[in-house]
Amino acid sequence: MSKPANSKAANQMWGGRFAEGPDAIMTAINASIGFDKRLYAQDIAGSRAHAAMLSATGILNNKDAEAIGEGLLKILSEIESGNFPFRIEYEDIHMNVEARLKEMIGEPAGRLHTARSRNDQIAVDFRLWVRDQCDAAITGLEALMRAFVAQAEAGADWVMPGFTHLQTAQPVTWGHHMMAYVEMLGRDRSRFIDARIRMNECPLGAGALAGTSFPIDRHMTAKALGFDRPTANSLDSVSDRDFALEFLSTCSICTMHLSRFAEELVIWSSAQFRFIQLSDKWTTGSSIMPQKKNPDAAELLRAKLGRVLGATVALFTIMKGLALTYSKDMQEDKEQVFDAADTLMLALAAMTGMVSDMTANRKILASAAASGFSTATDLADWLVRALNLPFRDAHHVTGTLVAMAEKKGCDLSNLTLAEMQSVHAAIKIEVFDVLGVENSIRSRMSYGGTAPDQVRTQVARWKAALR
Ligand code: ARG
């Protein structure tokens, strides 16, 4: 792209009342073409729909409309083949396209902007772009959810410790843990679907802010661009960016979910845990320590929320306190949304790869599940069920037995019946049945519980939903 220079001549698009051109620094701060060229396809689609409507309503004659439509298609292929001259003096994608159209077809190019403003033009371009990104996020999420479901199906009955406070709490199944993420990602997916529905109204035709005196057909352009309907208030149409904020907020929640699993991958793949093995494809070595296999991708995924949430906070801050309607502040929206969207799509793809390629160390998971007195709750529940103790008393008796086992340096199941009876005389031999991890998980049959049958029910439900 050409470097800005102090230009003597006033801007050709809007410079009628200007005696001299902008300072080079003004051009540099004002121009958005460096990043909004990414909206070229949306901009051209919007212009083509607008021109077709101008012609259908008789605002533009057919010959001019045809020349405009064809010229725009040529510009599209110029851009796609890398032959388009992006010029900073034309500020943004809208004026770059129009200036090039004028070079191609001459005077009719100047008629394209009838009954339109760059304010409704950018509003439509940006909505179209964000709408596509919602679709991409939904697709990416579904791939990741399928990867989690596949892990869950394979390991519906593999036991592992469940944690609270990162302390061993109760045994759970691998499948259950995987399916927890499917629930989170499923809600993210529905948030993108909802956001897409809400944003799918067409602002084109709002003009600069007040609508237009030309007899345009906003329903026609809305339909041509795949929107459900035109927006209903022209002031709101050019100044609304909450579709972008909703997208960013949803990206943030989703990236937060990814960061939680990323942290688990980091912990689980450590030499201290060895719950899983990450594949070589998603790890790196150390240049000095030959034994190392670092979970870099997981660490980066843990960090990405910093970036996505940063973009979210940035756009909220940009929009805060902006009086209606359009203000140039709003041009700062795009880089934030572009970066957050790129980050999310990459993160979803990387996480899908890692989840698909990781292997659970079943033996280590099982022995970890049995340690840390993980079946203490099962013991307390047994005391309630078999001996009719109030739960509070059962809790106390169990706590005494845990302390005894800890002192002995063994698990609850290694205490003798006599030792148990020294704490509560009525304890019977059947108590040992509930101290086993397998029995523990199988007993958690409540809906949404960790029992393998419950996990399989949820796996089946999601497999059908994701088909
Ligand atoms: N590049 C501008 C933006 O991104 C387009 C709208 C310009 N409108 C205006 N009145 N200067 O916001």
Write structural notes for this entry.
The chain is mainly alpha-helical and 467 residues long. 61% of the residues lie in helices and 4% in strands. It has helices spanning 24-30, 33-36, 40-56, 62-80, 93-105, 118-154, 174-199, 218-224, 234-239, 242-268, 296-319, 333-357, 362-370, 376-387, 391-408, 417-423, 431-434, 437-443, 452-465; strands at residues 159-164, 167-173, 201-202, 229-230, 276-277, 359-360. It has a two-stranded antiparallel ribbon with strand order 1-2. The two termini are 46 Å apart. 41% of the residues are buried. The structure holds arginine. Arginine (ARG) binds next to helix 6.
Q: Which ligands are bound?
A: arginine
Q: For the largest sheet, list the strands in their spatial order.
A: 1-2
- Which sequence of SSEs, written as H and E, runs from N to C? HHHHHHEEHEHEHHEHHEHHHHHHH
Helix content: 55-70%
Question: What's the alpha carbon Rg, rounded to whole Å?
Answer: 31 Å
Largest sheet: 2 strands, antiparallel
Task: Give structural attributes.
467 residues; 19 helices; 6 strands; binds arginine; mainly alpha; two-stranded antiparallel sheet; elongated
Structure in a nutshell:
61% of the residues lie in helices and 4% in strands. The chain is mainly alpha-helical and 467 residues long.
Topology:
Elements: H1 24-30, H2 33-36, H3 40-56, H4 62-80, H5 93-105, H6 118-154, E1 159-164, E2 167-173, H7 174-199, E3 201-202, H8 218-224, E4 229-230, H9 234-239, H10 242-268, E5 276-277, H11 296-319, H12 333-357, E6 359-360, H13 362-370, H14 376-387, H15 391-408, H16 417-423, H17 431-434, H18 437-443, H19 452-465
Parallel strand pairs: 3-4
Antiparallel strand pairs: 1-2, 5-6
Helix pairs in contact: 3-4, 3-6, 3-8, 4-5, 6-7, 6-12, 6-19, 7-10, 7-19, 10-11, 10-12, 11-12, 14-15
Bound molecules: arginine (ARG).
